[in-house]
């Protein structure tokens, strides 16, 4: 009888622990909250590298991309000063991230004494807090189980992805043999749950993956399937089931977003991911991320900031075309709210900010609107983001809503068009796509230049 009661007591205790784990997040026990700071450096004096030998810090593919477009490697490409980094580490600060383009460093493990020493260094221009640990601890991520549901093939080659490619008139490029082969697309997102194990994605050409979220070191494949769905819009290659807009392209999967919080440091992570994409030679960056308000209220963006040169990620985004890449970024899903405007970095110069329409070409009610604060047309173009076909983290073909999906659908068509016309520069490709929008003659704050016709763009380029 005693043994039975003891077992019952253990069972109750176990159930209680499980319930507590799955309930509200646990409170932190550490009294001193952890922080991450962004350090802006004055220059790059003391860098180990030279512009005379760019092959030491950029891949052959990155250099070839610049050469093809007549672009020079400049000081923003140089890695940071080794002597400055050494001085920063001597204060006790732990370097957790760097940006070459913006000449900034992310550091953690800084107490008051460390901060005092940092502010005395002559190589430092500014120190800003960009992350403070949340006051809760989250349960470790658990992968979704893969679905056992069978996908029934249709007579259509594109399967359930046909409508979204037809909206952009993308079939003429595919029929001419341009499906993204040889094009490298870097996806910057928050997580790619099960993308390494979903059978439908087995033939997607994934070159590698990298995590830039210093506060979230878990595998990018363990949690959040947002990136998985984004990847499927472009790379799916299952005739009769679902074919994406660039089924023969190659991909780098990069994580900069952390699902558990919204803080300024994520913009810094985003910049690092974009710089990495440049260094490995990506042609196109597809980013379904954007920021406006943060939970700590530190760094909130005002509309007046949306000039493409103020927000950290917008500043970097405005440099992407200078490196010879096309950045395709979601306009945002604030259309229903009081903000309504595009996010950052959708306000950046020389990118394609993408809004969302339904299959009937009517704009979705959630799609963010423009213009930018300096009165540039935003969004740039539109694509299908209402009822988009995706593969989710369980491996099931389903639908989803958001500019998060109109963006990769368009990114894939950019890859096909650029594959067909490799002599064109990033700026020329983007201008061509805008010029083929159905609102090009009368752009507006909802549709921008409209829904581009990629078949027409292909003809014009020829």
Describe the fold and architecture:
This protein has two domains: 35-133, Peptidase S8 propeptide/proteinase inhibitor I9 (Alpha-Beta Plaits), CATH 3.30.70; 162-461, Peptidase S8/S53 domain (Rossmann fold, 3-Layer(aba) Sandwich). It has twelve helices and 17 strands. The protein is globular, with a radius of gyration of 23 Å. The protein is of the alpha/beta class and 462 residues long. Helix 9 (312-317) links the parallel strand 12 and strand 13 (326-330). The strands form five sheets. The protein has a seven-stranded parallel β-sheet with strand order 8-11-7-12-13-14-15, sandwiched between helices. Strands 3-4-2-5 form a four-stranded antiparallel β-sheet, sandwiched between helices. Helix content is 27%, strand content 18%.
